[in-house]
Amino acid sequence: MKSFNIKVTARKDLGKKESRKLRLNDQVPCVLYGGKENVYFSAHTNTFKDIVYTHDVFLINIDVEGKTHQAVLKEIQFHPVTDEIMHIDFMETAPDKITIVELPVNLVGSSVGVREGGKLRHRKRYLRIKGLISDMPDSVEIDISELNVGQSVLASDLSYDKLEILEPKRAAIVSVISSRLAAKGMGEEPAVAEAAAEAEGGETQPGETPETAPAEDQQKK
Hints:
The chain is mainly beta and 221 residues long. The protein is built from 5 helices and 13 strands. It has a 6-stranded mixed barrel. A 4-stranded mixed β-sheet has the order 10-7-9-12, with no helix packed on it. The radius of gyration is 20 Å and the shape is elongated.
């Protein structure tokens, strides 16, 4: 995985009132969990822009006043009106620790079905992957060169050494549908619809996992 370094300030005073004070000074309250104890810290909102507003996923080295922790970003809470970053949760990890990470899907190649007039539908842009953090790639690459009209790549079609894909086996990741059906708004060929019958709806986004931990002052998006 790509790595990213940030320097932050430890938080000694917790609670909603103190978090509000931080935000008024363009600071983002954060929590790091998954280690021996939770670590609370904050940093200027600009510190996080390169790891929040990106398609990439990083192994983040967090320097908390001289002590470094390795972590992955797990959840971001945004203000419902302004989209300001309100709170960030990080999960502590280590090279020899089994971790669940949402990796971006990178499509490579030129689909034969698209060249023949079909429409590409990239249905899942992130996949939940389980394994050692040291074995995690930057992204999940899927070669779509042989993908024809009416065909899909399902989660069950993918296999990686030392990594486990935690998506439903029949979840469609990418499909090619006929341009005629796409124009009519029917969405997909019957074969594709059947293949994706058990896939969850919509695209996944970073941080959308059941592995969340309670953090003080969490707010619902």
